[in-house]
Amino acid sequence: MLNRLIHFVLRHKGFALGLIVLLIVTSLIALPRFSFDVVPDISSVQMQVLTQVPNLAPEESEASITRLLESGFGGIPGLEETRSLTTFGISQIGLIFKDGTDFYRARQLVQERIQTAITRLPTGFVPQMAPLSNGLGEVYTYALRYRLGAEPNLSAKEKLIQLKTLQDFYVRPTLRTVQGIVEVNTTGGFDKQYLVEPDSKKVFDVAMDFNDIAVAIQNNVAIGSGAILNTADHQTIVRSRARAQTVPELEGLAIKLGWGSVAVHLNKIARVESGTKIRTGAATLNGQETVLGTAMMLVGENGRDTARQFKGKIREIQGYLPKNVEIVSLYDRADIVDELIKTVRNNLGFAAFFVAGVLLTFLRSWRAALITICVIPIAFLFGIIGMSWLGISGNLMSLGAIDFGLIVDGAVVIVDNIVLKLS
Is the confidence at residue 400, as pLDDT, over 70? Predict the structure, then answer.
């Protein structure tokens, strides 16, 4: 069989060269779609169910939230293991499915179980599924900070409040529009809030309780629709814009009508000030608190291309940020993948140079050296076609461990024997 193949190739040299050219063209077409990454994705099919529990201790959250949810996930097709972790502020349940399980179908089944379990949970607690990502989904990490020497004359807490507000209402929503990015997580900073601290004696004097104040504030900070006034030639829409956005506006809210239709304003019975939510974590950069953002990639996307697009979007929005605010790149998967490609390219070049030098030294035939050197890139391109067809990414395991001896061993032996026979 092998002898017939060799004789066929020798008799039809043009056909053999045409196959090699076709192989090279096919590999060059497949190369742009070839997925490069740092390490292979060997993670299992996992789902995360998260429930924010800000008002309960971990023991109470475990009994009231986690156990009820965890028991409701039993019997899902393909589910192998269920894990849970309950800490202050959050209940986390991990669902691990069998390898090969359709990710989106499993997610749909989990969502159906969540909707069923909501009816048994305490009021106000809504479980949510984590984004469509996995353990290797982090492709980019950045820090949002003030430029050195251009920091505003504010306290450290006020600076973090401003950075967190900028991150939540501009930077994060803009970066989430990048193709392949499913979520941008934020760490650090303070969430701005307006705090109302009622005086219990004054509240009692106006015949109200704390719940009455909360309901009155909620009803008075909404935008209400009115009516339509029709005139001879046009219509006028009447609406109420009562959403308070500053401390003075909140202080001036009328929460009750007293004797003689005199309004009781909020500042008469409570102290209103600007504050922050209780936070459960922080982020630092070079010893200084800052706001970090982590981009999570959609399952199955190309990590290198996604990171490049994300970096391009950061450069775009940097021009719209305040002049004293900058985005600092901390982790970029595209840079690591580029280093991997550079390493593989250098190794291929060194191997080709080394093999050519040995063959020229011992065989003294430039043709033999050239033929053997050509085997290295052709074998590599042929491997890319197979990896693309099988869905295997190029990474440190699949590309960084290429055995060049295995690639050129056969070529060296055959070419050496041919040169010996011809001599």
Answer: no
Q: Coil, strand, or helix at residue 360?
A: helix
Which H helix or E strand runs over 263? strand 263-265
Q: What share of the chain is helix, strand, coil (3-state, %, to 5)?
A: 45, 25, 30
- One-letter amino acid for residue 45 of the chain: V
| CA distance to 92, 214, 422, per residue, from 80 (Å) | 17, 46, 64
Query: 283-317 burial by CB neighbour count: b if 16+ within 10 A, else e?
Result: beeeeebbbbbbbbbbbebbbbbbbbbbbebbeee
Task: Go through the chain and tell me how many residues it has.
Answer: 423
Distance of CA 156 to the CA centre of its chain: 28
CB proximity list for 279: less than 8 A, separation 6 or greater: 189, 190, 191
> Residues of the chain with pLDDT > 70: what percent?
95
3-class secondary structure, 102: coil
> DSSP letter string over 18-55?
HHHHHHHHHHHHHTTT--B-SS------EEEEEEEETT
For residues 192-218, average pLDDT: 85
Least Cα distance to 26 among 307, 357, 389 occurs for 389
CATH code reported for the domain at 46-129: 3.30.70.1430
Question: What is the C-alpha to C-alpha distance for residues 402 and 380, in angstroms, rounded to an integer?
Answer: 9
CA distances from 411 to 285, 367, 403 (A): 53, 13, 14
Instruction: Report domain extents, the chain.
Output: 15-39+336-422, 46-129, 138-192+287-334, 194-276
User: Which CATH number is correct for 194-276, 3.30.420.40, 3.60.20.10, 3.30.2090.10, 3.30.565.10?
Assistant: 3.30.2090.10
Q: Is the Cα torsion angle 404, 405, 409, 412 positive or negative in sign?
A: positive
State the Rg of the chain over Cα: 33
The CATH homologous superfamily of the domain defined by 138-192+287-334 = Multidrug efflux transporter AcrB pore domain like (3.30.70.1320)
CA distance 415 to 190: 70
The pLDDT of 163-183, averaged and rounded, is 91
How far apart, in whole angstroms, are the C-alpha atoms of residue 415 and residue 421? 10
Pairing of strands 138-146, 291-297: antiparallel
Report whether 208 contacts 226 (CB < 8 A). no
Which element (helix H / strand E) includes 204?
helix 200-205
